[in-house]
Automatic annotation (TrEMBL):
Domain of life: Bacteria
Lineage: Bacteria, Pseudomonadati, Pseudomonadota, Alphaproteobacteria, Hyphomicrobiales
Region of interest called Disordered, as start-end residue ranges on this chain: 1-21
Domain Class II aldolase/adducin N-terminal: 29-210
Family membership: Belongs to the aldolase class II family.
Protein name: Class II aldolase/adducin N-terminal domain-containing protein
InterPro entries: Aldolase-II_Adducin_sf, Aldolase_II/adducin_N, Aldolase_II/adducin_N_sf
Length: 262
């Protein structure tokens, strides 16, 4: 169930730095593309999940999908530009309440997390419902996440105030992926492309693990030395691979769903 933000925050003293129209437009297109492609892959849950990204030149402002729209409906122009006080600077509508309280605190407390994607995508959420470590080092796709995962063990209900957002931000530590037990996952990235890339491959890794576990046979773990080596290999090219991944998504969407650019 989604909730609207009930009232805006106190208007802050904003930076006088003007918005770079070209930079904002690129960020809007990139984030809208991620939302549309997530919908194609079944990674959303109704109108309850949310992606956000801080503007490149304005770390005090972030884009987020508006309350009430499915991921498949989002366009570049329908994304809301918000400050950390709950005020909508550009756009029509309001952010979903949990989206604001979680994402504003994550971006405020973790400046390196310039993009934050939260979903209840099915396979990753299934692993978040189990006791113990969620992701096992048994499949090659999973190995890219070695040393990059945190687990929030303390589900505390819906994030309807900033204190819950702060708690989740603190649980993330320096991780790029947070499994929120009994809830879902949060993926953090230095760029929109990197957050998207990790979100996509996290669900693929989780899907493979759940399918393997469903056979009832024991998982064959990769030796730790090899896990570390593969994780380092993945890290070396991850940013460029992520950029190219998102560019491919935008090309397909521009052909099949050009409305996302509006």
């Amino acid at each position: 169930m989604a909730h609207a933000v009930t009232a805006p925050g106190t208007p802050p003293a904003r930076s006088n730095e003007p918005l770079n129209a070209d930079s904002v437009r690129r960020a809007r297109i990139d984030l809208a593309a991620c939302l549309r492609w997530a919908a194609r892959n079944g990674l959303e849950e109704g109108i309850c999940n949310h992606f956000s990204a801080v503007l490149p030149e304005r770390p005090d402002l972030f884009l987020v999908n508006p309350y009430g729209l499915a991921f498949a409906e989002v366009t570049a122009s329908s994304l809301l530009l918000c400050d950390f006080h709950g005020n909508v600077v550009e756009g029509d509508g309001q952010p979903e309440a949990t989206a604001f309280h979680i994402h504003a605190e994550l971006h405020r407390l973790k400046p390196r997390a310039r993009a934050a994607f939260h979903t209840h995508m099915p396979y990753s959420t299934a692993l978040a419902m189990l006791e113990g470590e969620p992701l096992m080092w048994a499949g090659q796709t999973a190995l890219r996440f070695y040393g990059r995962i945190a687990v929030d063990e303390d589900y505390n209900g819906l994030a309807l105030d900033s204190s819950e957002g702060r708690r989740i931000a603190e649980s993330a530590g320096e991780a790029d992926v947070v499994f929120l037990k009994n809830h879902g996952v949060m993926v953090l990235g230095e760029t929109i492309a990197e957050a998207w890339d990790d979100l996509y491959y996290l669900e693929r890794a989780a899907q493979a693990q759940v399918l393997a576990m469903s056979t009832g046979r024991a998982l064959k773990a990769v030796p730790e030395a090899i896990v570390k080596r593969v994780a380092a290999q993945e890290a070396a090219g991850r940013a460029e691979s992520a950029r190219l991944h998102l560019e491919s998504v935008k090309r397909v969407l521009a052909r099949d769903e050009p409305a996302f650019l509006a």
